[in-house]
Amino acid sequence: MSFQPVLPAYGYAGWILLKRTMPAQAKAFQQAPVNQRDAEYFRNKIGTVTTADDLVSDRRLLKIALSAFGLEQDINAKAFVKKILSDGVDSPKDLSNRLADKSYRAFASSFGLDGTQLPKTLDEGFADALLDQYYVRQFEAAVGEQNDSFRLALNAEREIGKLAASAASEDTKWFTIMGNKPLRQVFEKSFGLPAGFSNLDIDQQLRVLKSRAQSQFGASTVSQFSESTKMEKLVRNFIVRESLTTMSNSPARNALVLLAARRGTAK
């Protein structure tokens, strides 16, 4: 990836600097020549896609489409992707509805290539809306090449906010988090859960997550993270704990992380 975000510091201090400079950095990322070329190609070609075959046969389009939903790892799994798109999302038997990661369902729903409706690729504004998602995800990926904790935190801010505001039941929201590896990582680390927690019985995991949420944030719900202060605390706890785990033994770096933790606790 040619774009290199500027991350002048690590730990929570580095996170704050990233957040302050992110609007300007994200704009520069979008304006990078390679991204402009990809966007132009997508806008010119996506309107010709009316079937699942059309999309999976064009690797350049497929890369952008999958990346917009965080599914770029499936770029070579053409038969699998075609099945996701062709099934649609209307039946519980559809493949996307049977997978724990609901990104696949969102992907299939957004394109509407199951043959039961007009393809959504023909909708006015479809290309720009999907490219906006693509830019966000790709910027996060660029950040992740230098600091994967920051990528996970950016993803959590976006995805947990949407999940918290959804009409799903609280148990469904928790199960969604458990089925989404990046979100699970953030919650497990933020809550201070031990390695191997995911090996517990699923209902026991649910009880523990609710209990930790109640004790640390005042409620056992996922919906509470629609509050910006609670979302900020969740991310801060994750980054500080992750930094303490992964940073080198440099005294200066460790002192920076501990200082950030004390400042966050004082708020």
Describe what this molecule looks like in 3D:
The protein has 267 residues and is mainly α. The protein folds into two domains: 102 residues, AGR_C_984p-like; 99 residues, no CATH class. The chain contains 14 helices and no strands. 31% of the residues are buried.
Average pLDDT over all residues: 91
**Mind telling me the CATH class of the largest domain?**
Mainly Alpha
CATH A-level architecture of the largest domain: Orthogonal Bundle
Quaternary structure:
single chain
The assigned structural class equals mainly alpha
Intertermini distance: 37 Å
- Please indicate the percent range of residues in DSSP E strands (runs of 2 or more): under 5%
What's the order of the H and E elements? HHHHHHHHHHHHHH
Overall number of strands = 0
What is the CATH T-level topology of the largest domain?
A: AGR_C_984p-like
How would a textbook summarize the main sheet? none
How many H/I helical runs? 14
Choose one word for the global shape. globular
Q: Helix proportion of residues, in percent? A: 55-70%
Rg over C-alpha atoms, rounded to the nearest angstrom: 20 Å
**CATH H-level superfamily title of the largest domain:** AGR C 984p-like
**Poorly predicted residue ranges:** none
